[in-house]
Amino acid sequence: MEHSAWHDLIKKELPQGYFAQINQFMNEVYDKGVIYPPREKVFNAIQTTPLEDVRVVIIGQDPYHGPNQAQGLSFSVPEEVPAPPSLQNILKELSEDIGDKRSHDLTSWAKQGVLLLNASLTVPEHQANAHAGGIWEPFTDAIIKVVNQKTTPVV
After folding, report:
1. Helix, strand or coil, per DSSP, at residue 114
2. For residues 67 and 84, what is the distance between their CA atoms, to the nearest angstrom?
3. Using CA atoms, how far apart are residues 1 and 154, in angstroms rounded to an integer?
4. Strand, coil or helix: 69
5. pTM here?
6. Are strands 35-36 and 114-118 parallel, antiparallel or unpaired?
7. Is the CB of residue 51 less than 8 Å from the CB of residue 147?
8. Catalytic residue, candidates 8, 31, 53, 62
9. Residue 90 CA from chain centroid, whole number
10. Do residues 97 and 107 lie in contact, with contact meaning Cβ atoms separated by under 8 Å?
11. Angle at CA 51, nearest 5°, toward 45 and 54?
12. For strand 35-36 and strand 56-60, is the pairing parallel, antiparallel, or unpaired?
């Protein structure tokens, strides 16, 4: 993320030293137990969808909290993983509008300008919403502020 268009713009929206606080938080929680998504995918939403390409934002609560589900994109799971209920609902609505989309991996959406962002970017195994109200909300709020500053329309 450090070399992306996101980095400096997000940093401007946060208090001094906030990225260091995020790193400290991640070091602590990943050392204590099983956290989703895998650490290398925590920032997948903004790493996969460049700021200049964002046309749509879909915000989820937090990553899926079961094994092999979370991949750092809200509502998306790897293809080989059964769709969780929230994704089933999205796919059902999509099917009614434009036909079936059988893939559970929404990476293709992210690459087309759909920012798939969760309000909290990490979650302990089997503990939905456990990291809510903590370190992530100011960060994800900063992302939304940056998106709102774009001159091109975003849904």
Report:
1. strand
2. 12
3. 21
4. coil
5. 0.91
6. unpaired
7. yes
8. 62
9. 16
10. no
11. 80
12. unpaired
Measured CA to CA, the distance from residue 124 to residue 36 in angstroms comes to 6
CA distance 125 to 118: 16
- Residue 28's identity, in one-letter code, is E
Q: Provide the pLDDT for residue 101.
A: 65
Tell me if 111 sits within 8 A of 48, measured CB to CB.
yes
Q: Strand 123-124 and strand 35-36: pairing? A: antiparallel
Percentage with pLDDT > 90 across the chain: 78
First vs last C-alpha separation in the chain: 23
What pLDDT is stored for residue 98 in this prediction?
67
Cis omega (within 30 of 0) on the bond before 124? no
Residue count of the chain: 155
CA-CA distance, 95 to 102, in Å (whole number)? Answer: 9
* Residue 141 appears among annotated catalytic residues: no
**Closest by alpha carbon to 54, among 10, 89, 16, 92?**
10
Determine contact, residues 19/1, Cβ cutoff 8 Å.
no
Query: Which parts of the chain have pLDDT scores under 50?
Result: none
Kindly report, residue by residue over 87-125, the tens digit of the pLDDT.
888 888 877 766 666 678 899 999 999 999 999 999 999
